[in-house]
Design a protein that fits this description.
Layout lengths: L10 H18 L5 H14 L4 E3 L3 E5 L2 E6 L3 E3 L3 E5 L7 H14 L2 E5 L4
Parallel strand pairs: 5-6
Antiparallel strand pairs: 1-4, 2-3, 4-5
Length: 116
Amino acid sequence: MEVHSHDLMLKAEVYRTVGCAMQVLNTRGHGLLEKSYENALIAELKLQAVPVRQQPSFQADCKHVVVGEYIPDLTVFDEGIVETKTSEKISDNERGHLINYDAEDKKRSLGFSPGN
């Protein structure tokens, strides 16, 4: 199987997850707190039979020494990390978190930002 750099990894899983996020946004609109969007997204993911875990804990290590833990908002399909944000713009700080989650646990990171 040939893989091109522009091909989306976990394409079907990403589409299902983003579809659930869009359904939440279209249903609830803007203005909820971040935790409310997270909980609504969990409900929608479960309705759509998407495997989801809320705030799982992962060890963070440096040179094989455990230096802490990180806790993403959600994992989906046991391969993707979802962070819900209610800001109008995703900052480098949030991007950094997603990149670090991705690098540490070899999972793929997704962001969901309904905005304010």
